[in-house]
Amino acid sequence: MSADTEALAAWWRSFARYSLADYAPRYDAMVRAAAENSDVLELVAAAPPEAHVPNNLQAAAHYLLLSGVDHPLAAAYEPDFSGDPGPLFCDLVLSHSDAVADLLATRVVQTNEVNRTAVIAPAVNRIGGEAASSLALIDVGCSAGLNLIFDRYRITFGDISLGPADAALRLTAESRGADPVATPAEVAWRRGIDRNPIDVSDPAQAMWLEALLWPDQLGRLDRLRAAIGEFRSDPPELVKADALDGLAAALADAPPDALALIVTTWVVFYFDEDLRRDFEAMLLDADRPTAWLAMEMAGIVPGVDVPPTSESAGEVSAITLVTGGAGRSVERRFCGWTHPHGAWVDLAPCTERAVRRRESRRRRPG
Ligand SMILES: C[S@@+](CC[C@H](N)C(=O)[O-])C[C@H]1O[C@@H](n2cnc3c(N)ncnc32)[C@H](O)[C@@H]1O
User: Fold this and answer.
1) Is the CB of 116 inside a 6 Å radius of any atom of ligand 1?
2) Where are the domains positioned within the chain?
3) pTM (whole model) above 0.85
């Protein structure tokens, strides 16, 4: 092995040990087998650096299977599989090395988790119920935009359900906090922004989104397909733009009498410190009322202190709300915790939680 492939192998072994193991045993076996196979490692090492994350190779193999390649690895994506997928994974990769190399060179890991609407739907309904106006929803880092249509999904929390009873996509989540608000918010306008929006009307792009799901995540595949079908039936507007440019345009284009509600779910995590500050400053300095609902790793949203939690960092996301704009005083609030994929939500009414930090800002000219 070269120095490059040694380093890659060490990274993949450690990723499997700390991130997968019991959590995703089939994906774990694939990553471990690849980490011991010098031919596979050489193929990955020759790809662009952003393709070196293990899920790119998993997705390339899964994509080939979804495209109709006949290989015994397909069994590992069936519910009742009980063997070792590792050797099959390496075999498929090496027997289709040109196609795999092409996918590694042209595709990036970019998911869109629709179960996060179990956070978005009750939070947006709560904010809409408290707002004096309708909402203009701006999903920054929307990926394929599947969470923009949160109110076309049926989301059930025990006895309480949100969304249409006849929805094509039915999601469930556990509510550990205040009862979810089922009364729909009035969303007057909506737009998704992403530097690389996925166009699910293109079958190849939709299939890559499916391929990114691991063999241990077959439940996620069904709901992703249902969400794609619903999205295609009446797609909302998606704009290709970087976060700042896209936000500036959306704030200018949204109906002036609506509260601009910016939503980010696992996006600000990818911004550097400067971009996090500029993003927040743009929405707080806007000449219209704005609210920023974030579901991100704790500590990612600037200025919001979150309380300690007994959940381990990889098992929890913080829900925060920052409001301002139009010269209003700025409020930064911790609103609760959630599983990173929305499997459970502990959403308290933000107004009943301690306001962690409050500051007055005067509207800046221009
Ligand atoms: C982990 S995905 C989350 C997608 C979606 N919000 C969800 O929860 O499923 C992160 C998304 O943020 C987008 N993104 C990251 N940095 C961005 C930036 N500076 N401007 C616009 N989009 C960005 C990526 O392209 C990607 O689609």
Assistant:
1) yes
2) 3-106, 114-359
3) yes
3-state secondary structure the chain: CCHHHHHHHHHHHHHHHHHHCCCCHHHHHHHHHHHCCHHHHHHHHCCCHHHHCHHHHHHHHHHHHHCCCCCHHHHHHCCCCCCCHHHHHHHHHHHCHHHHHHHHHHCCCCCCCHHHHHHHHHHHHHHHHHCCCCEEEEEECCCCCHHHHHHHCEEEECCEEECCCCCCCEEECEECCCCCCCCCCCEEEEEEEECCCCCCCCHHHHHHHHHCCCCCCHHHHHHHHHHHHHHHHCCCEEEECCHHHHHHHHHHHCCCCCEEEEEEECCHHHCCHHHHHHHHHHHHCCCCCEEEEEEECCCCCCCCCCCCCCCCHHHCEEEEEEEECCCCCEEEEEEEEECCCCCEEEECCHHHCCEEEEECCCCCCC
What's the gap in Å between 203 CA and the centre of ligand 1? 21
Task: Determine the distance separating the centroid of ligand 1 and the alpha carbon of 39, expressed in angstroms.
Answer: 32
List the residue whose alpha carbon is closest to atom 27 of ligand 1.
Answer: 143
Q: Is the distance from the beta carbon of residue 112 to the nearest atom of ligand 1 less than 6 Å?
A: yes
Model pLDDT for residues 248-285, shown as the tens digit of each residue: 999 999 999 999 999 999 999 999 999 999 999 999 99
